[in-house]
Design goal:
Layout: H1 26-29, H2 34-41, E1 44-49, H3 53-64, E2 70-74, E3 83-86, E4 89-92, H4 94-102, H5 106-112
Parallel strand pairs: 1-2
Antiparallel strand pairs: 1-3, 3-4
Protein name: Glutaredoxin
Family: Belongs to the glutaredoxin family. CC-type subfamily.
GO cellular component, one term: cytoplasm
Length: about 120
């Protein structure tokens, strides 16, 4: 299970993803490491169902801040809620993304992950 990024804490949240994990599923960290590799190689990844309005909102919020997230869309049978990864770690869904943005902690998190340069 992925560690969530804490907000409102004094300790730094960012740490590189672990190099190996004993509990990896076939699609998340299987032989090719498809999704795990995508999350590790891109500063910001938004995953969700194709055509999901909440995924669109998460993407537009990030684009508005100057971040170009990598978007991974799944078929209609997948869950509809977006999942946002920043710096190789799970940030959470749209509610968590908006909460961190409102508290003013999102921009420093994005800068630390290398997704935002200004």
């Amino acid at each position: 299970m992925q560690d969530a990024i804490p907000y409102g804490s004094a300790r730094p949240w960012f740490a590189p993803p672990p190099s190996s994990s004993s509990s990896s599923s076939s699609s998340w960290g299987g032989e090719g490491g498809g999704m795990r590799r995508m999350v590790a190689e891109n500063p910001v990844v938004v995953m969700g169902r194709r055509g999901c309005c909440m995924c669109h909102v998460a993407r537009r919020l990030l684009l508005g801040l100057g971040v170009n997230p990598t978007v991974c869309e799944f078929g209609d049978e997948a869950a509809g809620l977006p999942v946002v990864f920043v710096g190789g770690r799970l940030l959470g869904g749209l509610d968590r993304l908006v909460a961190v943005h409102i508290t003013g902690e999102l921009v420093p998190i994005l800068k630390e992950a290398g997704a935002l340069w200004l």
